[in-house]
Amino acid sequence: MESARQWIYSLLFFIFTIATLHVLDTLIISTRLTTNYQNIKLKKHPHLPLRFRSDGTFKILQVADMHYGNGMVTRCRDVLESEFNYCTDLNTTHFLRKMIQIEKPDLIVFTGDNIFGTSATDAAESLFEVFAPAIESGIPWAAVLGNHDQESTMNREELMSFISLMDYSVSQTFPSTKVNSDSKEQQPMTNIDGFGNYNLEVWGAPGSYLSNSSILNLYFLDSGDRAIVHGVRTYNWIRESQLSWLRGVSKGFQVYNHRDNGSMLINLWTFLRSQ
Ligand SMILES: *[C@@H]1O[C@H](CO)[C@@H](O)[C@H](O)[C@H]1NC(C)=O
Ligand SMILES: *[C@@H]1O[C@H](CO)[C@@H](O)[C@H](O)[C@H]1NC(C)=O
Ligand SMILES: *[C@@H]1O[C@H](CO)[C@@H](O)[C@H](O)[C@H]1NC(C)=O
């Protein structure tokens, strides 16, 4: 008799446990474990193509060598002794945010040493912080790397991939080439030295007769980090593969524009960093 009752209690307890787990699962656990595809955050894209304004201007804000570390705990270098205690990476952020507000550029270009590898303990975190003012502004921005960017937790390829996936970034790890001359499909061209070689087209002002054409072509080249040449430690340089890509793209634009109308303007503006 006693054992039968125990048996029933055990059974009831078992059923109660299962029921409780089931309720918990449907109400709390399963919603946290399964992915709701509607909530996945995708990269925010800027409005493209880049274009001249109706007044014929296109303003670029170029920023180099922010040398961002760990934010508030990383002190400024090369400031007066009296300023040292009151200057951190946050001053750089403040300055950049102010420059963007004052200048209202059409494109922001970061030319390397964006983060300072030896002070940045987590490259991704420092990248989020250093580019935050550009991302907040919603203005398209592009970046290339310096020699200090990769000294933290990511190599140059990882850095460029990460940067190209950030909101409003128009940066690319590799240049893209058309699959064939008539196709609109693009493929990354990976057989080139460096990470962060790409070009950006700037089209004519809306409503103008050049509104459907690229009239300014901006080239971004990766000048690499360090190198040892004949036992001497020096900086790296632009390789032939990069130049030949640049010549090819430039030639393509000349042919294209000649066919359309010989009067179009080709400007060659190359973003490089001097180390
Ligand atoms: C950095 O920012 C702080 C807080 O705004 C300010 O007090 C300080 O003067 C700034 N330092 C420099 C060197 O500009
Ligand atoms: C540009 O392309 C749009 C859409 O295809 C077209 O309506 C417009 O007339 C074109 N403008 C010029 C100047 O070619
Ligand atoms: C081509 O250029 C000429 C000036 O040389 C200009 O008058 C004409 O409108 C242009 N045509 C087109 C389609 O852009």
From TrEMBL:
Record-linked Pfam families: Metallophos
Transmembrane region(s): 7-29
Entries under InterPro entries matching the protein: Calcineurin-like_PHP (IPR004843), Metallo-depent_PP-like (IPR029052)
Keywords assigned by UniProt, alphabetized: Membrane, Transmembrane, Transmembrane helix
Domain Calcineurin-like phosphoesterase: from-to ranges: 58-246
GO cellular component terms, semicolon-separated: cytoplasm
Molecular function as annotated in GO: hydrolase activity, acting on ester bonds
PANTHER family with a match to the protein in the record: INACTIVE PURPLE ACID PHOSPHATASE 28-RELATED, PHOSPHATASE DCR2-RELATED-RELATED
Record-given protein name: Calcineurin-like phosphoesterase domain-containing protein
